[in-house]
Design a protein that fits this description.
Elements: H1 19-24, H2 30-42, E1 47-53, H3 57-68, E2 75-82, H4 88-96, E3 102-107, H5 112-121, E4 127-130, E5 136-137, H6 141-152, E6 156-167, E7 170-177, E8 182-185, H7 187-199, E9 209-212, H8 213-219, H9 231-240, E10 245-258, H10 272-289, H11 295-316, H12 325-336, H13 339-347, H14 353-364, H15 367-383, H16 385-393
Parallel strand pairs: 1-2, 1-4, 2-3, 6-10
Antiparallel strand pairs: 4-9, 5-10, 6-7, 6-9, 8-10
């Protein structure tokens, strides 16, 4: 992660310098400064950061350090333990609970949607954002985004981000995702750029955004339970359908760490296609609700569904899948013969030759070739995740 230079002495009172350096400048160090903030600041911060944690004990210290390094200081963090079975509870109580700017909530296991909703329930700040416990932040992230929200009075602030592939058996890999800085004021301006923003991966996630709590409460916007992989998109679609303005900066300020051992993205799921098919239907509903259901929106939704279907087929070859070879082929035949897969194939226009090749046997309903190709794709992902994501980024 990028780091900033040690700050100027004049700024030590408001940023996360170490105690010794702060004392040289004649201002209180972290320990005394954090103590002076006391519990009253917990309740009146301008920005709340909701951090769901499930079996995330190894990452809690680094997460807190990322927050402490923020140049923006008027924040509170709400860590929500989702019934972890490791030592997350004890680690949170030892490291996070004593922190003047942090709350800790423990709840029974219920998934990411329930966990983030539990955090939202106690937010009393004007702005809210979300962070995954194992991700990383640019030290300037919240200063830049809060300033963007203040200056533009937008309902949503958005920054660029990095996909970071980080595994013990591979070199770290960064993939940049951003969009030119701009302000979209009014529903017409949002509608004009909506498909492009989704297509550029700016709207898929919640952690590269700041939201207004008054809008969330007024419209009763929550995470919808029962969604795996897609809970961010469900929340953002609901927010966008009630949003009057969006401010974007092209700066990449968040590091989303992919492919950690045991992460959701690398597990086998028997219902993976059902999840992606439901998402396909709900994206159609979203664009129609936004009055943007034209050929451009249809092509985007169709292309996303075909490419997600490709991911579902690759997942069938996961080592955790105990189906026989015959059963795997039967499942793939069932998927590529699905009416919505065939309909999406008519409208999808893949952007790269690679994806054109990979989706061709799906569109043609050639089971044997589909099996051969996607078993190879899974082997690449397993043996060289950095290469896999480099290729995926060119799709």
């Amino acid at each position: 992660m990028r780091v900033t230079e040690r700050c100027d002495e004049r700024l030590c009172a408001v940023c996360a310098c170490d105690d010794a350096y702060a004392m040289q400048a004649g201002v209180p160090g972290n320990a005394s400064r954090e103590k002076s903030l006391a519990d009253s600041e917990k309740q009146h911060a301008r920005l709340s950061i909701v951090v769901p944690v499930y079996n995330g004990a190894p990452y809690i210290q680094n997460c807190l350090e990322n927050l402490e390094k923020q140049t923006f200081r008027d924040w509170q963090a709400i860590f929500v333990n989702d019934g972890s079975t490791d030592d997350t509870k004890e680690t949170l109580e030892r490291i996070v609970t004593p922190h003047a700017r942090c709350h800790v909530i423990h709840k029974a296991n219920g998934g990411t949607a329930q966990t983030r909703n539990a955090g939202l329930e106690i937010v009393d700040s004007p702005y809210v954002t979300f962070m995954d416990v194992d991700d990383e932040l640019d030290p300037r992230m919240y200063e830049i985004l809060v300033d963007l929200m203040d200056r533009t009075e937008a309902d949503m602030g958005v920054c660029g981000y990095y996909f970071k592939v980080e595994r013990d058996d591979a070199e770290p890999y960064l993939e940049e995702k951003n969009y030119p800085g701009c302000i979209l004021r009014g529903r017409d301006a949002i509608r004009e750029k909506l498909v492009e923003l989704w297509d550029r991966d700016m709207l898929y996630n919640v952690w590269n955004k700041i939201y207004r709590m008054d809008l969330i409460r007024k419209k009763g916007i929550q995470y919808r339970d029962g969604h795996i992989y897609t809970e961010d998109r469900v929340f953002n679609r609901a927010y966008l359908e009630n949003c009057g303005s969006i401010a974007l900066t092209d700066q990449c300020l968040y590091y989303y760490v992919r492919e950690r051992t045991g992460s959701t993205s690398e597990k086998y799921r028997e219902d993976y296609f059902d999840i992606r098919h439901k998402e396909y239907i709900e994206f159609q509903t979203h664009f129609k609700a936004m009055d943007v259901w034209d050929e451009c929106a249809r092509e985007y939704v169709s292309r996303e569904f075909i490419e997600r279907t490709a991911g579902c087929i690759e997942n069938i070859f996961h080592a955790e899948n105990k189906l026989s070879g015959k059963e795997k082929r039967a499942r793939i035949t069932q998927i590529i013969a699905h009416p919505d897969v065939m309909e999406a194939g008519k409208h999808a226009r893949c952007r790269s030759r690679m994806m054109g090749i990979l989706t061709f046997p799906i569109k043609m309903r050639w089971t044997w070739l589909t099996c051969v190709l996607y078993q190879a794709v899974y082997l690449v992902r397993k043996s060289n995740p950095s290469l896999f994501h480099k290729l995926k980024s060119k799709r």
